[in-house]
Specification:
42 helices; alpha/beta; 51% helix; Helicase, Ruva Protein, domain 3; single chain
Length: 992
């Protein structure tokens, strides 16, 4: 028994290990015996076995968001494959600190962690790893690219969309490399690239380049010549700027994609056969510039985001990588000063990554010239080397200060031409900065004046930089564990200064209630420097003085009172500029208390399809700003990914006054609520969006006294504003019915997923909440029709919404896919508002499939040696496609469904499936795996890929009932022949 016990524990899911009770059932022995044997073997209990990986997961989540709530932390941990309560999270969070301290001594656990890391690490077939953002903002797009290249038998033709410079060509190259590494094409297969714009003015020559020609095809065609299509046989053909391809060329490509055949120019009888996967890229709207016949033959579309929609931390990595490439070209280390780095991070870059690289190259070229002339050891990029438009990025520092401080630390960076790590230089001590503040201002004035900047901009830049430096100085004093003692400080600044500072500190403490201790050290050193400059006859202007006197009037009056004391104590004369500097120190100490709100109201437009970018662009151009930001969701993009993108952009545009979200359909209205809960940023959402409304929103939001609620209320007018955080009391009039109206939600996976569909519908129909019920049921319920009849007896069922149509006559069915796309929402609302509800009439003259009708040896893979769920999905889909059970788009629909929610049935079993519209005839592809694999965090050994229709309800009920008995699962996975699996099902009572 001990041997079997060890085997079970070695194979268990370490996120949800077996309890002693579960082990006793699997071993068919008493629980007490299991506990004694486990203790004898020195094996910890299930909680301890799970502890290491649980604490590691919690630590990772906290590292990304240290302020996450206990509720959200529990939800995120369970999303990663655990099944634990908030109480367990609370206890584990307390244990985390001690665990991290003892981690180095836990040799066995370290070994397990290494094994776990290797197992969970992605395949080495990862040619996308060098793309910055591959595990960040670009992850969903790279997943689509991988899926396209792995789709059997030769990959999917793909259209890559995006503005100029977003990296379309780089993605295409990575897809080609990934295809080679994945053995989809041969290692020596060429990557053929053709820019359609090169020959756009000469269509005949363009066609000749693509398809080749025979001798005499046209004037100058003296020999036969193969085209790029032939050269790409067995590989990939990348067509850049495909919108420049003439209609005739698109028609020929359509024929090539459809038939795999083409003719050279001048050929009339011979047809040549090739196998080519086409990657096409364009900056234009494909629906308006490509023929429908051609567009429909490209099943995969990937839309890359522009640079300003990506996180600043990724932009920093892109900047460093481009500088590293220039360092390699020049064979010299490059030091980028902090101001220059900030400008690169923040300036408007309409040409995206391409323009960013170009601007970096210009800066490096100027730096290299100085490097050669001055014979310096390394190249230096300062603000002087930057193009003029790039320098304007410094004007945006104030609105991005916190993140910029975090990204640029406190120093300059040296980047080497080899693989040496970046070197951080310029580490300031606690008391160094105040001695340099005046010199810093002088140098910055001279520097900025030499760049022909006007006085207002100079004051703005320097003022913000001084505030930033003061904040860092205060933070250094706070973080310093052993601050300098008074007797040591006297040696630095003198007893007179110390005595004077002690008197003015009391004034600050009494009148502002601030922590005088923090202010003591910085004022003492600052004042010492001030006295030294006055003795040398040097005076300095405070660039923030006008702002200080106007905005910080209370602190400035106190600072003037403090300067009077200083003048009397030290026998010196201090100007208002010096009082302004003292005010800034005081302001740093009182800032947190007041939590002052500055900036403008942000505006973000979110749409399904290609709508938002156009409206934002029109509003920005008309008003001469770049204020409105946009997010466009592809129709197949999961809500989770769209929400993460929305959170990133809201964080980026928030200036302290909140963000107005303009969305084009009701299903997006709750994004505002979720974003506010996750980030703390105030939002308002409006679900009626047009260009005029966007223009008015932007116009109002950029006004100095803009207020989020006032703007939203004004724009709202008669439009209903729906949000759970600030929900209007306006409800659609509740009509009186004899029976309350109801919507039934169903999902092929079970009632849990039907509950998630219910939650989605609650968001898009919240204005009807007083007059409608939403009732979730599982398709797996064997008596589903009786359940519907029971619901119908008490309610008016206006619609059924879900992933499969149960085919109840006279009850309209709306697919979840239509709800996600938006067109189903309006249809659902029309049904809710229509009082004419017909009685239910269930179809009876239909053949009902049973489970044994749907499984076949030709649809079965036994002991499949797979590592990842995508491999399983591709192979099982391939069987269904080859045997003509499903249409070509089936696999893509399966992958899309996987993104929506898990498709787990029970422990060890998963039932991936697609929209029934892709099913030609019902069938189930079976996959018994050689070893367990992780499927969204859970261990899976048996896969049933469902290609079902509404005639398969009875079969679904049988599947559900069969796997409720754990013994049936154990019997299935012991079988090595299809006949064995079928016999297990035959002996099951529901299979007869």
């Amino acid at each position: 028994m001990e041997k079997k016990l060890i085997e079970l524990i070695n194979k268990e899911n370490n996120r949800n290990p077996y309890t002693d009770s579960e082990l006793s059932k699997l071993l068919n022995v008493r629980r007490e015996l299991v506990t004694l044997s486990r203790q004898k073997l020195g094996i910890p209990d299930s909680r301890e076995r799970r502890k290491r990986v649980l604490l590691k997961t919690i630590d990772e989540i906290l590292h990304m968001d240290k302020n996450i709530s206990e509720r959200e932390l529990t939800k995120e941990v369970n999303k990663r494959g655990f099944d634990i309560s908030r109480h367990t999270i609370r206890q584990s969070r307390k244990e985390l600190k001690d665990y991290k301290k003892n981690q180095l001594n836990m040799v066995n656990n370290d070994l397990e962690e290494t094994i776990e890391k290797i197992r969970l690490e992605p395949s080495n077939k990862f040619s996308f790893k060098n793309i910055i953002g591959a595990q960040g903002s670009l992850k969903p797009f790279i997943q689509l690219a991988k899926a396209a290249m792995l789709y059997p038998p030769h990959g999917l033709h793909t259209l890559i969309l995006g503005a100029t410079g977003v990296g379309k060509s780089e993605l295409a190259i990575a897809m080609y490399e990934f295809s080679k590494l994945s053995n989809m094409i041969k290692d020596n297969a060429p990557f053929i690239v053709f820019n359609c714009a090169d020959y756009a003015d000469n269509p005949q020559l363009l066609m000749a380049q693509l398809f080749g020609y025979v001798k005499g095809a046209f004037t100058g065609a003296d020999i036969d010549k193969e085209g790029l299509v032939e050269k790409a046989d067995g590989s990939l053909l990348f067509l850049d700027e495909v919108h420049r391809l003439p209609p005739k060329g698109q028609e020929l490509l359509f024929y090539l994609i459809d038939k795999g055949k083409f003719r050279r120019l001048g050929e009339t009888e011979i047809e040549r056969k090739v196998q080519v996967t086409i990657l096409a890229a364009t900056t234009e709207n494909p629906d308006s510039i490509l023929l429908n016949t051609f567009r429909r033959r490209i099943p995969m579309t990937i839309q890359l985001p522009p640079l300003d929609k990506r996180p600043l931390k990724e932009r920093l990595e892109i900047i460093k990588e481009f500088i590293r490439k220039e360092a390699s070209r020049t064979h010299s280390a490059i030091k980028i000063c902090k101001d220059a780095l900030k400008a690169f991070l923040l300036y408007d870059c309409p040409g995206n990554i391409g323009q960013l690289r170009s601007d970096i190259q210009v800066s490096c070229a100027r730096s290299f010239l100085n490097h050669v002339v001055n014979k310096s050891k390394i190249m230096r990029i300062t603000i002087n080397e930057l193009p003029s438009d790039t320098k304007k990025g410094l004007l945006k520092i104030k609105n991005n200060r916190i993140e910029i401080q975090r990204l640029t630390i406190d120093s300059n960076i040296i980047i080497h031409p080899d693989n040496k790590p970046d070197k951080i230089v310029g580490n300031e001590g606690i008391y160094i900065f105040p001695n340099e503040i005046y010199k810093y201002i002088e140098d910055r004035y001279n520097d900025l004046q030499n760049q022909d900047m006007n006085q207002e901009i100079i004051n703005y830049i320097i003022g913000n930089e001084i505030e930033e430096k003061l904040e860092k100085l205060i933070k250094k004093v706070e973080d310093n564990i052993r601050p300098i003692e008074k007797k040591d400080l006297i040696k630095i600044v003198g007893i007179e200064v110390i005595n004077a500072v002690e008197k003015i500190i009391k004034i600050a403490k009494w009148k502002l209630g601030i922590d005088a201790g923090k202010l003591y050290y910085v004022l003492a050193v600052h004042l010492s420097t001030t006295i030294e400059r006055i003795s040398k006859g040097k005076m300095i202007r405070n660039p923030q003085l006008s702002k200080i006197k106007k905005e910080y009037e209370h602190e400035f009056k106190i600072a003037l009172e403090m300067t009077e004391v200083l003048e009397e104590e030290l026998d010196i004369q201090l100007s208002e500029d010096e009082a302004g500097f003292i005010t800034m120190y005081l302001r740093m100490m009182t800032k947190e208390k007041e939590a002052e709100i500055e900036g403008r109201v942000g505006v973000v437009i979110i749409s399904h399809g290609k709508v938002a970018n156009g409206m934002a662009d029109v509003a920005n151009r008309l008003l001469g700003v770049a204020h409105a930001k946009s997010i466009e969701m592809s129709l197949d993009e999961s809500p989770e990914i769209a929400l993460e993108r929305s959170i990133d952009i809201v964080k980026n545009v928030d200036e302290g006054k909140g963000v107005l979200l303009l969305v084009d359909m009701g299903s997006l209205i709750t994004f505002g609520e979720i974003i506010t809960q996750k980030t703390g940023i105030r939002t308002r959402s409006l679900n009626r969006t047009d260009t005029v409304m966007v223009i008015e929103a932007v116009r109002r939001s950029i006004l100095p006294d803009a207020d989020l609620d006032e703007i939203a209320d004004t724009l709202e007018e008669k439009t209903k504003y729906i949000s759970r955080l600030t929900n209007s009391n306006k409800k659609i009039e509740n009509r009186s019915f004899k029976k309350r109206k109801a919507i039934i939600t169903v999902c092929i996976t079970g009632q849990g997923s039907a509950q998630k569909i219910k939650e989605l519908l609650e968001n898009v129909t919240s204005e009807y909440e007083d007059s409608i019920r939403i009732i979730p049921i599982g398709v797996l319920e064997s008596n589903m029709k009786n359940i519907v009849l029971n619901i119908q007896s008490k309610n008016h069922v206006v619609a059924i919404v879900g992933t499969v149509n149960p085919n109840m006559n006279n009850i309209p069915f709306i697919s979840l896919e239509d709800i996600a796309k938006g067109n189903g929402v309006n249809r659902l609302k029309n049904l809710i508002e229509n009082d004419d509800i017909k009685t239910i009439d269930i179809k009876k003259d239909r053949y009902e499939y049973r489970l044994l009708d749907l499984i076949h040896s030709s649809l079965t893979i036994l002991n499949g040696n797979f590592k990842y769920k995508e491999e399983v999905i591709f192979e099982l889909s391939k069987l269904l496609i080859e045997n003509k059970y499903v249409k070509e788009g089936f696999i893509y629909s399966v992958l899309t469904r996987e993104e929506m929610a898990p498709t787990f049935l029970t422990e060890g079993v998963v039932i991936p499936h697609a929209n029934p519209s892709y099913v030609l005839k019902p069938g189930i592809a079976l996959g018994k795996l050689k070893r367990e694999i992780y499927w969204d965090g859970k261990r899976i050994k048996f896969v049933m890929m469902l290609a079902l229709t509404s005639q398969c309800m009875k079969a679904m009920g049988e599947i559900y009932d069969f796997f409720q008995d754990r013994n049936n699962f154990m019997n299935i996975i012991e079988q090595n022949r299809f006949e064995g699996i079928r016999n297990v099902l035959l002996t099951y009572k529901g299979g007869n």
